[in-house]
């Protein structure tokens, strides 16, 4: 990541409320909860419409952010918080679910399309650029002819839940590596596994 005074804004995507807690679409929130445990603090309400936690991750200043809006409106809280902390798009890392990767696979990249992901679409529109970091957590494709919109709003299955804590921890490691060592180092460490 770029050095400087501004913190890195690490955004976890999900939907608010207990109804959605265990959904595949909420993997961003689950990873952010793990990062919060590592940073050592609690999320607090921020005027930008998000829950935020300031701290240090791998020795670097970060702001962890979970939008309080629904997924398709994530852009407003992300931009509002980024402006408050003077973090440009080059300091934004978004952790989100990815249908086109097998469960637990991780892919990190800078920029790209939204691939039908409404949270990314909202963030891209609000930031005015596609050039922010993404940490994509594979949730696999829906079985049979199930509508992807229904699939992402379902909880992880029994088999997935057995490995979920490990995969969340690994994703948090990938975020920490990205923040501390940059994109190429994170890709080299986590794309092979």
Automatic annotation (TrEMBL):
InterPro entries: Pept_tRNA_hydro, Pept_tRNA_hydro_CS, Pept_tRNA_hydro_sf. Catalyzes the release of premature peptidyl moieties from peptidyl-tRNA molecules trapped in stalled 50S ribosomal subunits, and thus maintains levels of free tRNAs and 50S ribosomes. Monomer. It comes from Actinokineospora auranticolor. It catalyses: an N-acyl-L-alpha-aminoacyl-tRNA + H2O = an N-acyl-L-amino acid + a tRNA + H(+). The record marks 15 as: Discriminates between blocked and unblocked aminoacyl-tRNA. Belongs to the PTH family. One of its GO terms (molecular function) is tRNA binding. Coiled coil: none annotated. The record marks 97 as: Stabilizes the basic form of H active site to accept a proton. This is Peptidyl-tRNA hydrolase. It is found in: Cytoplasm. It is an enzyme of class 3 (hydrolase). One of its GO terms (biological process) is protein quality control for misfolded or incompletely synthesized proteins. NCBIfam families: pth. CDD domains: PTH. The active site is at residue 25. Keywords: Cytoplasm, Hydrolase, RNA-binding, tRNA-binding. TRNA binds at residues 20, 70, 72, 118. Its EC number is 3.1.1.29.
């Amino acid at each position: 990541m770029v050095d400087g005074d501004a913190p890195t804004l690490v955004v976890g995507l999900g939907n608010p409320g207990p109804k959605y807690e265990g959904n595949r679409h909420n993997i961003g929130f689950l990873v952010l909860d793990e990062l919060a445990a590592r940073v050592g603090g609690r999320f607090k309400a921020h005027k930008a419409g998000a829950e935020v936690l300031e701290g240090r991750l791998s020795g670097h200043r970060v702001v962890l952010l979970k939008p309080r809006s629904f997924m398709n409106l994530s852009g407003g809280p992300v931009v509002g918080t980024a402006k408050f902390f003077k973090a440009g798009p080059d300091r934004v890392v978004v952790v989100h679910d990815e249908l086109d990767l097998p469960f637990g696979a991780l892919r990190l990249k800078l920029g790209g399309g939204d691939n039908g992901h409404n949270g990314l679409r909202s963030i891209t529109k609000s930031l005015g650029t596609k050039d922010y970091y993404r940490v994509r957590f594979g949730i696999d494709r829906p079985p049979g002819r199930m509508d992807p919109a229904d699939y992402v709003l379902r909880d992880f299955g029994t088999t997935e839940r057995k490995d979920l804590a490990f995969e969340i921890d690994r994703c948090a490691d990938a975020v920490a590596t990205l923040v501390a060592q940059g994109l190429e180092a994170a890709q080299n460490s986590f794309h092979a596994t």
